[in-house]
Structure formats: C-alpha cells, structure tokens
C-alpha cells in the first residue's frame, strides 16, 4: 500500500532521493521499483538498533514518513537527525520525539488503505487521487516464472488460476469446506477448458490437502511448499489469469501486478472492499451485504458470518 505513495512522491519531486525502511521479509515487494534510490532493511534485532540509525543518518534525509507506526522506527528516525518526521495518530513515542502526524479520523469517512497512506505524502505537498499499487518485475523474472510453471507440469497456455484459501488470521475468511466445494464447482465449470488451479496457502490443513488429492484431478495442483520466497510467489502470481482470495496479502500482490482478481470481503470497515478492495479495473470485489452483516454478525464484529454471507455462486459467475 505504500507503492502508490512512492510513485507519487517521485512524480511530485522528480529529483528527490527516496528510500524505504522495511523488514527484510517484505523488501521483495519493492525490488526493481524505478522510483526508489535505496532500500534499507531492519531485522528488528535489539543489538542492531544503532546500526540502523547510523545507516539512516549517513544519507542526511530531510523528511521521513512513518506509515506503519512502530516505536522502534520512530526512535530510529529521531536519533538519525531527520528534522521533518510525519507519523499516523498520536502515540506517546511520537509525542516524545516531536513527530508531526496525520489523523485517520476514526476512519470516517471510510477510504482505501492506500489512500490513508497517501495522506502522509500529501502532507509533503503531493496532490493525487491515483492510489493504484504497483510491483515491478523484470523480463528475466517473468521468464523464470514460466520455467517454474513448466517444472510443475503446468501448461503455460492454459487458463491459470490461484485459489488462495488462507489468511493467517489477517481477515475474515471462508472455511475449508466451502473452499473445497468451490474447487469442485470450478472444476465442473471449467471442465471443457484447458485450465489449472494452483492452491498456494501454507495454512491448508492436512485434511483439506488429502481431500484435494483424493479428487485425483491433475489440473488441481498444491504448490504452497514449492514456493520458497515472497519474490518467487510474486513471479508466479504475475503469470496467472485469475486470483481468487479473501482480503489478504496475495490478492493485494495480484492487484499491484494488474492481474484479474475475485476478492472475498466481509462488510466490517477493517476488512471491507472500500478499505481493502482490489483497485485494478480488471477485478471484482465481492462483499457481504450490510443487511446480512447487521442481522447475523455481532455488533462488535467478533462473530463474523462471512461463510454464509457470500455464496459459491457469487464467485462462479465472475470466473
């Protein structure tokens, strides 16, 4: 969600020196980004705190945008001597370090997460409504992805779908029984087509895996354990014709790669399509209706009935 902000900062300040500070595990999203000059990483180890401060300090940054507020990063930016620092909200450590801030106003009116991120860049003078995320792959990486698919005996000329059934708790989701039934219905719908369905969620239960194997359908391939890095996952997604997923990481990667998506969302603000929906124009966001949510989900949304609130038919008709 910070990739639109990086692009618009570059557009607004074409001669600026722009860097990012991320964890090593997420820098793969930013590789080959033409709008970046440097990618700094922090492994969050206590003994490396001052090493990162020293690394930041040597670039003599004038401005810092703390998009994801963490105490560690706030102090690193402060001790690195960056004068103009902008964060989100008013955490105690932000007050102590004299950090400026933008407010999300309790998400009223509700906007997209990428738009909230852009507010920090707007504080520096960026004027834009373009919040489309983007990820950049080289032609070599795309060729590597094709070779990976060939090694998995997947016909590159087929209709290739990722069905990602997990969220690792990041968003409300269907249960595995419903995904299994969707898988069967998808196979029936596509039986006259040259298709492959890739199952990529590491959280798939052993029971679900066994049920899928018992289908004995060579066009349904479990590949989660074959994907060893985030960058390789990004490469694979870039070669898909469709990604079906709830409101979690893989669908946002697909969005940034301009791949068609069918997003599955609950209605509550934190996970709704308005806040976390796919933005590219090729895609469809399906969301539990407000009426269903008000009737069957708890008011504090701790009980979510997304499993009953969206039907398999809702997904099938968009495939």
Could you explain the architecture of this structure?
By secondary structure, the chain is of the alpha/beta class. The chain has 2 domains: 120 residues, Glycogen Phosphorylase B (Rossmann fold); 178 residues, Glycogen Phosphorylase B (Rossmann fold, 3-Layer(aba) Sandwich), CATH 3.40.50. Helices cover 36% and strands 15% of the residues. The chain contains 14 helices and 11 strands. The strands form 3 sheets. A 6-stranded parallel beta sheet has the order 8-7-6-9-10-11, covered by helices on one side. A 3-stranded parallel beta sheet has the order 3-4-5. Helix 7 links the parallel strand 6 and strand 7. The protein is globular and about 60 Å long. It starts with a helix and ends with a helix. The mean pLDDT is 95.
Give a short synopsis of this structure.
This protein is α/β, with parallel strands linked by helices and 319 residues long. It is built from 14 helices and eleven strands.
Topology, please?
Elements: H1 3-12, E1 19-22, E2 38-41, H2 49-57, E3 63-65, H3 71-79, E4 84-88, H4 92-96, E5 100-102, H5 113-122, H6 139-151, E6 159-164, H7 176-189, E7 195-199, H8 206-214, E8 220-222, H9 230-238, E9 242-246, H10 249-256, E10 261-265, H11 273-276, E11 284-287, H12 290-296, H13 306-309, H14 312-316
Helix pairs in contact: 1-5, 2-3, 6-9
């Amino acid at each position: 969600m910070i990739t639109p902000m990086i692009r618009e900062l570059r557009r607004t300040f074409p001669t600026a020196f722009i860097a990012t500070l991320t964890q090593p595990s997420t820098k793969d999203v930013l590789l080959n980004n033409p709008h970046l000059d440097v990618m700094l990483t922090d492994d969050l180890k206590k003994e490396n705190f001052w090493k990162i401060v020293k690394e930041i300090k040597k670039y003599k940054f004038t401005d810092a945008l703390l998009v994801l507020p963490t105490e560690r990063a706030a102090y690193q930016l402060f001790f690195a001597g960056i004068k103009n620092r902008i964060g989100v909200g008013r955490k105690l450590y932000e007050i102590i370090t004299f950090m400026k801030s933008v407010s999300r106003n309790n998400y009223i009116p509700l906007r997209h997460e990428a738009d909230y991120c852009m507010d920090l860049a707007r504080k520096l003078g960026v004027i834009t409504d373009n919040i489309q995320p983007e990820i950049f792959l080289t032609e070599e990486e795309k060729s590597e992805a094709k070779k990976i698919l060939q090694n998995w005996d997947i016909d590159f000329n087929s209709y290739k779908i990722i069905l990602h059934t997990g969220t690792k708790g990041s968003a409300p989701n269907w249960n595995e029984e419903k995904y299994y039934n969707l898988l069967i219905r998808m196979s029936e719908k596509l039986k006259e087509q040259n298709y492959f369905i890739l199952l990529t969620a590491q959280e798939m239960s052993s029971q679900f895996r066994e049920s899928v194997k018992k289908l004995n359908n060579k066009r349904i391939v479990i590949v989660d354990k074959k994907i060893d890095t985030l960058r390789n996952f990004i490469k694979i997604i870039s070669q898909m014709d469709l990604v079906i997923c709830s409101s979690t990481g893989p669908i946002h990667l697909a969005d940034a790669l301009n791949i068609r998506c069918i997003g599955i969302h609950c209605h509550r603000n934190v996970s709704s399509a308005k806040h976390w929906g796919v933005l590219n124009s090729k895609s469809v966001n399906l969301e539990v209706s407000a009426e269903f949510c008000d009737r069957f989900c708890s008011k504090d949304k701790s009980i979510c009935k997304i499993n009953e609130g969206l039907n398999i038919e809702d997904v099938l008709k968009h495939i």
